[in-house]
Amino acid sequence: MGMDAAIIPVVRLEGAIMSGGSALRQNLNLAGCASRLKRAFEMKEAPCVAIIVNSPGGSPVQSRLIYQRIRDLATEHDKKVHVFVEDAAASGGYMIACAGDQITADPSSIIGSIGVVSSGFGFVGAINKLGVERRVHTAGLNKSVLDPFLPEKAQDIKRLKELQLEIHGVFIDLVKASRSDKLVEDKSMFTGMFWTAGPAKDMGLIDGIGDLRGTLRGFYGEKTKLKLVEAKKGLLGRSASMGISGLGIPVMDANLGHQIADGLLSTAEERALWGRIGL
Prior knowledge:
The protein is α/β, with parallel strands linked by helices. Helix content is 37%, strand content 15%.
């Protein structure tokens, strides 16, 4: 490059990958990051786009949609994509990281968990102890599949496993296609196991170990500057629920109770996802 400093847009993709969200809890999904990704790739003078991934996973659909949007934008604008992993790029988080032409991680980053998991609770017998009668009426033989208040059925578990294997296959194919000849054959790679950056690099799951600023300056010169692409704020600032124009004047929100409950549930789900990889 010449004497001019390269200005590289940076997009943060952080948190559990789930559809929806609220003013009190922002999940990672395509709807929430599409605008930022578009603006980053439209910076004409930028030699590349840097994406920070920090996610324990979540929805396989949203993960693949984000991956595909990044690849489509990279092709459309002819830009190279550098992905940088912070705490983790696990499960769906690693699927998103695979959108990078180059994946760099911190030595202590958690990488991998290429698998599919479904979890829940069984309350069989609990409602009987409480004196509650369970009533379920369905139109359709399989509408009460995996009901947590009924004993598990072998055919229900079999069907769930079939679905998991189909989704796992999509994940495996995506990793193989994106990492192609970089992968080293390893029997544990697609078992759901996860690793720190060193072993992950040896297996070809990532390309390098380092940090965002140092790595990009190594590629594009010491004068390289980074520009964080953030979500645009609304007309009144952060949010009307925070008060008029963010001045602290209370504004009643009829959905506040629902948002609080939804936020608490999302927090619990995200905590469980981080817990699966020991973070």
